[in-house]
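Subject: Era-like GTP-binding protein structure
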Amino acid sequence: MGLLTDLRDSISRVVDRMFSDAEPRRIGIYGPPNAGKTTLANRIARDWTGDAIGPESHIPHETRRARRKENVEIERNGKKVTIDIVDTPGVTTKVDYKEFLDHDMEKDDAVRRSREATEGVAEAMHWLREDVDGVVYVLDSTEDPFTQVNTMLIGIIESQDLPVLIFANKTDLDDSNVQRIANAFPQHETVPLSALEGNNMDEVYDKIAEYFG
């Protein structure tokens, strides 16, 4: 019995090392511009590491390059899940420099920003096709989710056979409509939250651990 016990303990230690040395799951945060992706990425990073990932802004396309926060360890219900968060630029079919002029931006800066935002969309698509293990798809729950971009991206995610969670953000706003998002993509679970206010983050972390652990 002693030999059998020693063998079982040895196997258990090997299995533990295999799982502890496994690469963190790389989770891409996707969605249209101004859905609150960076706000959510920063909320997760601050809650579990104390550090933010990048600046937040009400101006569209504030995130124009993918930003990554590695080894974010989330512990839920006695289980630890380690992920790398990739905050990606907002995906859209067209970036018009004129939309930045409404934010008191000089034309040269607006043109540069629109060019960088367009390059950011291409980078986000590259990450999606090549470099992520799962997706958190963030939508503004005050906006209509039935758009060409959302349908296209969800389709690409499904074609890649990636686990995906849909987060209906900005539930702190009066015109929030979470059910509209749930109805748009009934094949995926929709989790309501306010990344800005930190509302319902316990469920957010439970679902991240469940889907990506």
